[in-house]
Every structure is written in C-alpha cells, then in structure tokens.
Specification:
Layout: E1 2-5, H1 12-18, E2 25-26, E3 29-30, E4 36-40, H2 42-67, H3 71-76, H4 84-92, E5 99-105, E6 113-118, H5 125-141, H6 155-166, E7 171-177, H7 182-197, E8 200-206, E9 211-212, E10 218-219, E11 228-231, H8 235-238, E12 253-255, H9 260-263, H10 268-275, E13 285-287, E14 300-304, E15 314-317, E16 320-323, E17 333-336, E18 343-344, E19 347-356, E20 359-368, E21 378-380, E22 382-384
Parallel strand pairs: 4-22, 7-8, 7-11, 11-12
Antiparallel strand pairs: 1-4, 2-3, 5-6, 5-19, 9-10, 13-17, 14-15, 14-17, 15-16, 18-19, 19-20, 20-21
C-alpha cells in the first residue's frame, strides 16, 4: 500500500457539480482530494481488508443475536428499556439491512485494526461508489495510472441488487433525511436513484415532516402512509424521539432496521473484545467504568457510545491529550487501546470498508493531519495494481 501524487483532472469540479457531488469542498478546503491516490495490491485488498470485513461482520451479527436475548447486554448497549423488545423483534423477524462501513487502521503490512463500525447511517457512499470509480476510468484513459488498474468497488451494482432483494415486488418507498444538510440530502438522492434503478418508486420526505395519523401509522407531509422508509437519521436519536413509542405497532419497514442500533454503537468494541480477546483485527477495549479498563489507564482512546465524525473522542497519553471537536456527545463511554492510523506523506489514513447486505463491497480512504478522523477529513481515491 502506497500513496502516490497525481495532477488533478482539469475538469473534475465541473463534473462533480454536474453529477450533484456538491460537497466536494468544506469551508473552502477540499473534501475530495485527487492530488493523491492510494495504490494497493490485490492481496492487500482481499486478505487485508475484504477478508477481515466479512469475518468482523459475522462476529457482529453473532453479537446481535446474543444481545437481543440479554437484558444485561441491552443495558450495556444503552438501548432504551421501553424499546428493547422492538429492537430485539426487528432481529428475530429478520428485518433486512442495506449497508454499513467498518473503519480500519491499515497500512498494507500488519492486520487491519477495527476502530468502529458505522452500521446505521454511514455517509460518503456516493463518493465511494460513483465518483472514485469515474476517477479510476478517467485516470486509466489519460494514462495517469496503469491500464490494468482496478478498484475494490462493487457498491453501485450491489446496492441496486440489495434493494431488489429487500423489495422483490417493487413498490413505494419513502426516503428521509435533513433536507437542508447538503451532504445528507444528496446522499439520499443517490440512494433514491439506485432504488429507482431497482424498480422501486421512491418519494422523499423531510425527517421533520414525518407525522403520525389517528391509527398510529406514520405518514408524510401529504398524509401518504409510510410503509417502508430509508432514513439517514441515527437510531440512537430515533429511539429517544417523541415518536419512538408508536414504532412497534406502526407496521413500517425501516432501513436500516432497529437491530442496527446495536452494531452502530461503540459498546460493541469492548463486547467484541470480551468474546474475541486477542483477535488480530480487534483493539483491546473496555467500558470506561469496568475495573479492567485500568489496563489502559496510561494510554487509551476514550469514545462516547454515540458519537460521529470523531466528535468528543479523545486520545489520552502520558504526554498529553488530543481532543476531537465537541459535538455535544456525552454520557457513557468506552476506552480502546491507542493504535495510531498509518502516516503517508504526513497524512493519517483511515480505510473505510463497505458491506452491502452480508457482503464486502468496496473501500474508501479518508485522510487527516491529525489522528482523529473528522467531518473535514479528506476523501482520497484508491486503485488496485499488481
């Protein structure tokens, strides 16, 4: 695995705008960065990323199966007591999952180490699935990278196939997010388009416009019944909303399903370690209030159970503490062994490894000058070459 520098395509920004990829810069700083790219071998991808992704995903599913039968585990996961049966029933009914993303430290040398599993509302799916694939085709065409280069990226076709598998008879599906947050809205537009290609009839409803009718069923702003909905809105918030109480009787299929509230929770990190201590792809981790956490007292990463984009994460070491931005996340936390992301050309790199349904489906790379990946961290494309 190596980082190479490349000249930018002269028209990439215009192409991004034309395709709806309008969040390619953040506050004037590039989010999409094609002045560099990561080159990996096929073995590095298959053995170092794809294989561990499949194994960790299965370990996660085994943990869900155990957790939904245990009040103790549901309490450790901080699932609200009044909706624990709803979360458990979503698993027992076999409610389908669309996608998720593991975040790894990986340098092509040692084993990938799991930082967390973004199993509920992972963003960057559009740039992973589409824009970096277009980059690959353009770079091959202009000779910047070898003509036989490939990419670990079957996201587009697998997502369409997954929509078809979830809704084999087609039908009407609502899609929802914050309508004013550009990245979220455009991401949902992309998924709406994939759903349409899969033969579905998508309709957007702003998350704040979802209502409840007299029969206890969810409806959109036009009073249309919501029977199936993809929502880019985290379960840890949904389960605590005013409208959470009607969920068990609302006869609604939700993507991601409620059982993903278990996997998207950083409490899975100590729970996985407890069950698979010493696994090469896991980092030692404990609940903050566990006496065993003293093993990491001199150096550790503190992570709230619910936080996103590196917010409220802190790296505590004898020489000082590195803090993530304050996103208002507080409450219970876990501690995880310090394992710094690899550094390439002065940039810390995190590999995102995507799952669609039950299958590994692609990867992405985010970079930052600091060790904590945040919402301003750059997205850098990759390719495979042997």
């Amino acid at each position: 695995m190596q980082r190479i520098t490349l000249p930018e395509r002269p028209d990439w920004q215009a192409r991004a705008e034309a395709l709806g990829f309008t969040w390619h810069h953040d506050s004037g700083q590039p989010y999409w960065d094609e002045t560099a790219a990561y080159a990996l071998t096929l073995a590095e991808v298959e053995d170092g990323i794809e294989g561990p992704t499949a194994e960790l995903h299965q370990m996660g599913l085994d943990l869900v199966d155990e957790a939904v039968k245990s009040e103790r585990l549901m309490e450790q996961l901080d699932i609200p007591e009044r909706l624990r049966d709803y979360v458990a029933d979503s698993w027992k009914r076999g409610e389908p999952s669309l996608y998720g993303r593991f975040d790894f430290a990986y340098d092509g040398q040692g084993p990938a180490k799991l930082y967390e599993y973004n199993a509920d509302t992972p963003t960057s799916i559009y740039e992973s699935a589409v824009f970096q694939w277009l980059w690959l085709e353009d770079r091959i065409a202009d000779g910047s990278i070898p003509s036989d280069a490939d990419q670990f990226n079957s996201l587009h076709e697998k997502l369409i196939a997954r929509f078809r598998a979830i809704f084999p008879d087609g039908g009407f599906v609502h899609f929802s997010s914050d309508p004013d947050f550009v990245e979220d809205r455009q991401t949902v537009r992309f998924l709406e388009d994939l759903a349409k290609q899969a033969g579905l009839d998508p309709k957007f409803v702003a998350i704040g416009d979802v209502g409840l009718n007299a029969d206890g069923r969810f409806v959109d702003e036009q009073n249309w019944l919501i029977q199936a909905m993809f929502k880019l809105y985290p379960w840890e918030q949904m389960l605590r909303d005013d409208y959470a109480e009607p969920l068990p009787a609302a006869e609604i299929t939700v993507l991601e399903p409620a059982w993903k509230s278990i996997l998207s929770n950083k409490a899975i990190l100590p729970l996985l370690w407890e069950r698979h201590a010493g696994h090469p792809n896991l980092l030692e981790a404990y609940f903050e209030d566990d006496p065993k956490a003293s093993a990491l007292s001199s150096a550790h990463v503190r992570k709230p159970l619910f936080s996103r984009e590196g917010a409220n994460i802190s790296i505590v070491e004898p020489g000082g503490t590195e803090q993530g931005q304050d996103g208002g996340y507080d409450g219970r936390a876990i501690v995880q062994a310090v394992h710094a992301p690899p550094v390439f050309d002065g940039r810390h790199a995190i590999v995102g490894s995507w799952v669609v349904g039950e299958e590994p489906a692609g990867m992405s790379v985010r970079e930052d000058v600091g060790r904590i990946t945040r919402n301003t961290s750059s997205f850098v494309p990759h390719f495979i070459i042997d």
